[in-house]
Amino acid sequence: MRSKLANNRDITCGITRSITHDFARNFLRVRPILSIAISIIFVAGTIRSTYGYSAKLPIWATKQSAAKLCFISQDGNYTYYQRRPSTLMLSSKYSTKAVLTAPTDGNFTLLASPSRKKIIIELDPFYFFSNENSYSFLYVLDFGGTTPTAIGQGISPKMHLNDNWVSYYEPQKKTIHFQSLNMKEFSSKFNISISSATNPYFVPEVIMYDEQNVLYTDLNNQGYSGIFLLVRNTKKNVLLYKNKGPGIKIEMCLNGSNLYIGKFAYPHIKGASTNTT
């Protein structure tokens, strides 16, 4: 059957609506506290790449070279591109404006959610690629805007709750940072410290169901990944699900009222399971 996953792409995959016993027991135990009503769908760990693409891809027209493009809106009204050596530009309505200038040989990556209210800018200086302890400089600007606001340094930035919140991960401190993008509450921030110590390359998955309830993944000392729930107003942190073995990566995607959970085995890891519950 077909199901809509992240980035609004249709991916054909085997799925099951039967929740594992451990996850169901813990999820139902905290559900009265959260007043959350979402469906949990586990996605098969093996998806053939040829199934992940539509037969007909959309065509966007732009005067900019494809090598310079950073982001283009679906209607073609807004095109963000990088002008060398390192200036981010916006082309819109037959005019161009500078958005952000970086050190020489910097590289820009732009991200947006389906809400299309905000855009995340990741600025990677040249030395970022040769230093594992270097993080991206992160900015947020209005969709179609030219005035970015700095939010911090880290990796894996993500928009939440209709682009009203942003999160990013700081690996060296093992901290997930959250910040409100509502100008009246821009100073509203909170953090989650994770315990992953066995894998320095581990990056947690994060989903804000609402402003009080946050789902995230973590890795224990034995290499077992799990899904945790933080209830902010009670400061409760609940383990909802834990893998039965090491070497399994968990990915999550919230699409409407459906929470999609994928379990994927890391390649070439002894003892890793390729089965999906």
Number of strands: 21
- What percentage of amino acids are in beta strands? 35-45%
Overall residue-averaged pLDDT value: 78
Low-confidence stretches: 1-21, 27-38, 44-51, 271-277
Shape: globular
Report, as a whole number of angstroms, the end-to-end distance.
17 Å
Strand arrangement across the biggest beta sheet: 9-10-11-12-13-14-15
Sequence of secondary-structure elements:
EEEHEEEEEEEEEEEEEEEEEE
Number of helices: 1
Portion of residues within helices: under 10%
Largest sheet: 7 strands, antiparallel
The Cα radius of gyration reads 20 Å
Structural class: mainly beta
How would you briefly describe this protein structure?
This protein is mainly β. Helix content is 5%, strand content 44%. The strands form 5 sheets. It has a 7-stranded antiparallel β-sheet with strand order 9-10-11-12-13-14-15, with no helix packed on it.
